[in-house]
Amino acid sequence: ATPTAVMVGTGLGAESGILIRGGESLERAHQVDTVVFDKTGTLTEGKPKVREIVAGENESARDELLILAASLESASEHPLGRAIVRRAEEAGLVLKSVERFEAVAGFGARGVVAGRSVVVGNRRLMEEEGLPLDSLDGRLEEFIASGKTCVYTAVDGMVRGVLVLSDAPKESAVSCIQRLKAMGLEVWMITGDNERTARTVAGEVGIERVLSEVLPGEKAEKVRELQEKGRKVAMVGDGINDAPALAAADVGIAIGAGTDVAMEASDITLMRDDLMLVPRAIRLSSLTMKVIR
Ligand code: ADP
Ligand code: MG
């Protein structure tokens, strides 16, 4: 690779908001035949909203549930946790003191709020804690079927209700996926979220290949499995939990609006929140490599 071509390539990238780390990244990006996207915060806005609260029979039961869940989540950095806190604030509810907090990566959180034991998270977390869910399932069918994220909340050993959230795909997601496919690339989505929700979001943006319920520690392994099948993989992500996968990929692409940890693990950072920069970065590397040869 001639230094001049690489300089031109990285310069052109920077102009459109694509920060490329070193000439080797360009070379590897040129060989990519597979692009793996994280879901939350990468394909979606990453700003989920509470759409519904399923609890008890009346409003006070719903408020009580929201207060306990939001109090615990006030100690969490997860986008779902933030959304739950926001909803409680919007409703003018006063949060309670958190006496103990533990994040359970890929599942949720548990702790003690005002003397009560509170567990907030996905279905798998409730199952792991041995908390029965049957009474709720009938009321959740519609939400599960439409791909909403259900956050279960248990208080003192009983599941008391569910916060139903959803997160809209980014506007640029559909055209980005279309372009990548037109370039002949294979596209995947990877997420810790449940299969139904994952499939729904994937369908909305035009992705057929989905890896769901992947634990944060397993994302890198999934990337390596694709590489072992001979694929050259670009991974696109934003979160702390994406960092190992971004580093394992042939080319790691971080969303600049995401976490610093993701950017540090990556070869390329997108400085604008526009997914069309993904195909552009890959095209740019091909053009640069053609100039070089
Ligand atoms: P993603 O890969 O989509 O970014 P994560 O691996 O962070 O998702 O989390 C996987 C799933 O675990 C979430 O979809 C959610 O159901 C649950 N979860 C994780 N953290 C929390 C939390 N703080 N509050 C509620 N649910 C959570
Ligand atoms: Mg994410």
Automatic annotation (TrEMBL):
GO cellular component: endomembrane system; plasma membrane
Domain of life: Bacteria
Localization of this protein: Cell membrane; Endomembrane system
Main location: membrane
Swiss-Prot/TrEMBL GO biological process terms: copper ion homeostasis
Gene Ontology MF terms in the entry: ATP binding; ATP hydrolysis activity; copper ion binding; P-type divalent copper transporter activity
Keywords: ATP-binding, Cell membrane, Copper, Copper transport, Ion transport, Magnesium, Membrane, Metal-binding, Nucleotide-binding, Repeat, Translocase, Transmembrane, Transmembrane helix, Transport
Chain coiled-coil ranges: none
Family: Belongs to the cation transport ATPase (P-type) (TC 3.A.3) family. Type IB subfamily.
Protein name: P-type Cu(2+) transporter
Residues of the full protein shown: 474 to 766 of 830
